[in-house]
Amino acid sequence: xxxxxxxxxxxxxxxxxxxxxxxxxxxxxxxxxxxxxxxxxxxxxxxxxxxxxxxxxxxxxxxxxxxxxxxxxxxxxxxxxxxxxxxxxxxxxxxxxxxxxxxxxxxxxxxxxxxxxxxxxxxxxxxxxxxxxxxxxxxxxxxxxxxxxxxxxxxxxxxxxxxxxxxxxxxxxxxxxxxxxxxxxxxxxxxxxxxxxxxxxxxxxxx
Length: 207
Prior knowledge:
Layout: H1 13-25, H2 31-67, H3 71-75, H4 78-100, H5 117-126, H6 128-138, H7 147-174, H8 183-206
Helix pairs in contact: 1-6, 1-7, 2-4, 2-5, 2-6, 2-7, 2-8, 4-5, 4-8
Protein backbone atom coordinates (compact mmCIF):
# COMPACT_ATOMS: atom_id res chain seq x y z
CA UNK A 1 0.00 0.00 0.00
CA UNK A 2 1.38 3.44 -0.91
CA UNK A 3 2.65 5.51 1.99
CA UNK A 4 0.14 8.23 3.01
CA UNK A 5 1.10 11.69 1.83
CA UNK A 6 1.44 13.18 5.32
CA UNK A 7 3.35 10.21 6.71
CA UNK A 8 6.42 11.82 5.16
CA UNK A 9 7.99 14.88 6.72
CA UNK A 10 9.20 18.13 5.24
CA UNK A 11 12.91 18.79 5.65
CA UNK A 12 13.01 22.35 6.88
CA UNK A 13 16.78 22.67 6.59
CA UNK A 14 16.87 22.86 2.77
CA UNK A 15 14.05 25.45 2.72
CA UNK A 16 16.51 28.23 3.55
CA UNK A 17 18.79 27.13 0.74
CA UNK A 18 15.82 27.05 -1.65
CA UNK A 19 14.85 30.58 -0.66
CA UNK A 20 18.35 31.91 -1.24
CA UNK A 21 18.59 30.13 -4.60
CA UNK A 22 15.20 31.47 -5.70
CA UNK A 23 16.21 35.05 -4.87
CA UNK A 24 19.50 34.68 -6.74
CA UNK A 25 18.08 33.00 -9.85
CA UNK A 26 14.38 33.91 -10.08
CA UNK A 27 14.89 37.38 -8.61
CA UNK A 28 17.67 38.40 -10.98
CA UNK A 29 16.92 40.96 -13.72
CA UNK A 30 14.92 39.58 -16.61
CA UNK A 31 12.08 40.54 -18.96
CA UNK A 32 9.32 40.23 -16.36
CA UNK A 33 11.11 41.83 -13.41
CA UNK A 34 12.57 44.72 -15.39
CA UNK A 35 9.18 45.30 -17.02
CA UNK A 36 7.62 45.63 -13.57
CA UNK A 37 10.22 48.21 -12.59
CA UNK A 38 9.58 50.13 -15.79
CA UNK A 39 5.80 49.92 -15.31
CA UNK A 40 6.05 51.08 -11.69
CA UNK A 41 8.17 54.06 -12.70
CA UNK A 42 6.05 55.06 -15.70
CA UNK A 43 2.55 54.36 -14.33
CA UNK A 44 2.86 54.06 -10.55
CA UNK A 45 1.74 51.18 -8.32
CA UNK A 46 -2.02 51.61 -8.71
CA UNK A 47 -2.04 51.56 -12.50
CA UNK A 48 0.41 48.64 -12.51
CA UNK A 49 -1.40 46.33 -10.07
CA UNK A 50 -3.26 44.46 -12.81
CA UNK A 51 0.01 43.89 -14.66
CA UNK A 52 1.66 42.70 -11.44
CA UNK A 53 -1.18 40.23 -10.89
CA UNK A 54 -0.80 38.97 -14.46
CA UNK A 55 2.96 38.44 -14.07
CA UNK A 56 2.34 36.49 -10.85
CA UNK A 57 -0.38 34.35 -12.44
CA UNK A 58 1.69 33.64 -15.56
CA UNK A 59 4.84 32.80 -13.60
CA UNK A 60 2.84 30.55 -11.26
CA UNK A 61 1.54 28.68 -14.31
CA UNK A 62 5.16 28.09 -15.30
CA UNK A 63 5.90 26.86 -11.76
CA UNK A 64 3.03 24.37 -11.95
CA UNK A 65 4.25 23.19 -15.35
CA UNK A 66 7.71 22.64 -13.90
CA UNK A 67 6.23 20.73 -10.95
CA UNK A 68 4.23 18.56 -13.34
CA UNK A 69 7.45 17.59 -15.10
CA UNK A 70 6.58 18.91 -18.55
CA UNK A 71 9.28 21.59 -18.71
CA UNK A 72 11.96 19.38 -20.25
CA UNK A 73 9.51 18.18 -22.88
CA UNK A 74 8.44 21.69 -23.83
CA UNK A 75 11.95 23.14 -23.95
CA UNK A 76 13.16 20.15 -25.97
CA UNK A 77 10.85 21.18 -28.82
CA UNK A 78 12.69 23.89 -30.81
CA UNK A 79 9.45 25.30 -32.18
CA UNK A 80 8.06 25.81 -28.68
CA UNK A 81 11.11 27.82 -27.59
CA UNK A 82 10.86 29.96 -30.74
CA UNK A 83 7.17 30.63 -30.06
CA UNK A 84 7.87 31.62 -26.43
CA UNK A 85 10.68 33.94 -27.50
CA UNK A 86 8.61 35.53 -30.27
CA UNK A 87 5.61 36.20 -28.01
CA UNK A 88 7.80 37.53 -25.21
CA UNK A 89 9.84 39.78 -27.51
CA UNK A 90 6.77 41.18 -29.25
CA UNK A 91 5.07 42.11 -25.99
CA UNK A 92 8.26 43.56 -24.51
CA UNK A 93 8.74 45.80 -27.55
CA UNK A 94 5.13 47.00 -27.24
CA UNK A 95 5.58 47.66 -23.53
CA UNK A 96 8.97 49.36 -24.00
CA UNK A 97 7.43 51.76 -26.53
CA UNK A 98 4.60 52.70 -24.17
CA UNK A 99 6.97 53.12 -21.21
CA UNK A 100 9.31 55.30 -23.28
CA UNK A 101 6.44 57.52 -24.42
CA UNK A 102 4.44 57.60 -21.17
CA UNK A 103 3.75 61.11 -19.81
CA UNK A 104 4.73 61.98 -16.23
CA UNK A 105 2.42 60.45 -13.61
CA UNK A 106 0.98 63.85 -12.76
CA UNK A 107 -0.18 64.25 -16.36
CA UNK A 108 -1.77 60.82 -16.67
CA UNK A 109 -5.55 60.82 -16.60
CA UNK A 110 -6.27 57.25 -17.69
CA UNK A 111 -4.88 53.75 -17.28
CA UNK A 112 -5.71 52.92 -20.89
CA UNK A 113 -2.08 52.57 -21.95
CA UNK A 114 -0.86 50.91 -18.75
CA UNK A 115 0.12 47.23 -19.07
CA UNK A 116 -2.80 44.91 -18.40
CA UNK A 117 -3.60 41.72 -16.51
CA UNK A 118 -3.71 39.81 -19.78
CA UNK A 119 -0.41 41.27 -20.93
CA UNK A 120 1.25 40.36 -17.66
CA UNK A 121 -0.08 36.80 -17.79
CA UNK A 122 1.07 36.45 -21.37
CA UNK A 123 4.58 37.62 -20.56
CA UNK A 124 4.72 35.51 -17.39
CA UNK A 125 4.00 32.35 -19.39
CA UNK A 126 6.04 33.28 -22.47
CA UNK A 127 9.09 34.54 -20.54
CA UNK A 128 11.89 32.10 -21.49
CA UNK A 129 13.94 33.08 -18.42
CA UNK A 130 11.11 31.99 -16.12
CA UNK A 131 11.06 28.44 -17.53
CA UNK A 132 14.81 27.96 -17.20
CA UNK A 133 15.16 29.73 -13.84
CA UNK A 134 12.23 28.01 -12.13
CA UNK A 135 13.30 24.60 -13.45
CA UNK A 136 16.80 25.17 -12.05
CA UNK A 137 15.52 26.33 -8.66
CA UNK A 138 12.94 23.54 -8.44
CA UNK A 139 15.65 20.92 -8.94
CA UNK A 140 18.08 22.54 -6.49
CA UNK A 141 16.68 21.05 -3.27
CA UNK A 142 14.63 18.19 -1.87
CA UNK A 143 12.18 19.19 0.84
CA UNK A 144 10.42 15.89 1.55
CA UNK A 145 10.79 12.11 1.34
CA UNK A 146 7.95 11.58 -1.13
CA UNK A 147 7.76 13.09 -4.60
CA UNK A 148 4.23 14.39 -4.05
CA UNK A 149 4.95 16.17 -0.77
CA UNK A 150 8.28 17.44 -2.12
CA UNK A 151 6.55 19.01 -5.12
CA UNK A 152 3.75 20.46 -2.97
CA UNK A 153 6.23 22.02 -0.54
CA UNK A 154 8.30 23.53 -3.35
CA UNK A 155 5.19 24.93 -5.03
CA UNK A 156 4.11 26.59 -1.77
CA UNK A 157 7.54 28.09 -1.09
CA UNK A 158 8.24 29.23 -4.64
CA UNK A 159 4.74 30.62 -5.19
CA UNK A 160 5.33 32.86 -2.19
CA UNK A 161 8.70 33.90 -3.60
CA UNK A 162 7.13 34.72 -6.97
CA UNK A 163 4.79 37.16 -5.23
CA UNK A 164 7.54 38.66 -3.04
CA UNK A 165 10.07 39.05 -5.86
CA UNK A 166 7.65 40.68 -8.28
CA UNK A 167 6.15 43.02 -5.69
CA UNK A 168 9.68 44.12 -4.77
CA UNK A 169 10.59 44.92 -8.39
CA UNK A 170 7.36 46.88 -8.87
CA UNK A 171 8.00 48.76 -5.64
CA UNK A 172 11.53 49.59 -6.77
CA UNK A 173 10.19 51.14 -9.96
CA UNK A 174 7.43 53.00 -8.16
CA UNK A 175 10.01 54.52 -5.80
CA UNK A 176 11.35 56.49 -8.79
CA UNK A 177 7.94 58.03 -9.51
CA UNK A 178 8.08 60.97 -7.05
CA UNK A 179 11.33 62.11 -8.66
CA UNK A 180 9.78 62.13 -12.12
CA UNK A 181 7.30 64.97 -11.84
CA UNK A 182 9.44 67.04 -14.17
CA UNK A 183 8.42 66.06 -17.74
CA UNK A 184 11.96 66.24 -19.10
CA UNK A 185 13.39 64.06 -16.34
CA UNK A 186 10.50 61.63 -16.68
CA UNK A 187 11.16 61.23 -20.41
CA UNK A 188 14.85 60.53 -19.82
CA UNK A 189 14.24 57.94 -17.09
CA UNK A 190 11.36 56.22 -18.89
CA UNK A 191 13.37 55.94 -22.09
CA UNK A 192 16.36 54.59 -20.16
CA UNK A 193 14.17 51.97 -18.47
CA UNK A 194 12.63 51.03 -21.81
CA UNK A 195 16.13 50.52 -23.23
CA UNK A 196 17.14 48.40 -20.22
CA UNK A 197 13.96 46.36 -20.66
CA UNK A 198 14.77 45.63 -24.30
CA UNK A 199 18.38 44.84 -23.38
CA UNK A 200 17.40 42.45 -20.59
CA UNK A 201 15.05 40.66 -22.98
CA UNK A 202 17.77 40.35 -25.59
CA UNK A 203 20.13 38.85 -23.02
CA UNK A 204 17.48 36.36 -21.87
CA UNK A 205 16.75 35.34 -25.46
CA UNK A 206 20.41 34.95 -26.43
CA UNK A 207 21.43 33.14 -23.23
